Amino acid sequence: MPRTIDYLFTLMSPWAYLGFDRFHAIAKAHGVTIRYRPVMLIEVFNETGGLPLAKRPPTRQAYRFVELQRWRARRNLPLVLRPKCFPFDAALADRITLALVELGQAPEAYLRAAHRAIWVEERNLADEGELAQLLEVTGSDASKVIETAKSQEVVGLYAANRGWALETGVFGAPSYVLDGEIFWGQDRLELLDHALTSGRPAYRPDGDA
User: Fold this and answer.
1) Is the pTM of this model over 0.70?
2) What are the boundaries of each domain within the chain?
3) Can you list the positions of beta strands (E) in 123-174?
4) What's the CATH number for 4-198?
5) Rg (Cα) of the chain, in Å, rounded?
6) How far apart are the first and last CA of the chain?
7) pLDDT one-digit tens code per residue, 1-42
8) What is the DSSP letter of 41?
């Protein structure tokens, strides 16, 4: 039976963008199923002690920009450090992921295009028209997908991911959860790959107790 990785993310995260292709390549190489769990990250922060970028101390904000440059070079990806439309309300853009899944469509192409739209093209993905255009160019019926993304069912699924994150112990995005073990941050993808390759049992916080 294929293993599943729960992938908690938001399109607001440049780290989710930087790790996107590497993560999907790892999942494909190991035949792993991805369960997409977009989340309103600020709600997770509020419960777990995290701070939105604007409220972090200046030294932490400065270091973030250094790290983004390092990983931009390491992943060999274009990335605008300060896109003109950031921050933005990512709720609808995130929920489109869930809508695509509900409609039986793989969200990978949409997410790849959406990440690029934010972090390379500096487009405003709080704008429904921009989202519709992305969906059309990636082969989806934009009006149907957006209608589904606005439905109470999908709104409920999006909200439920917050509860799942808190129950599981996830506190940041992107996070990749394999057999209950949390790998936080795209800089942990090599560790995730090793866990899949080795077949080792999941590590727990009470390990070696």
Assistant:
1) yes
2) 4-198
3) none
4) 3.40.30.10
5) 17
6) 31
7) 779 999 999 999 999 999 999 999 999 999 999 999 999 988
8) H
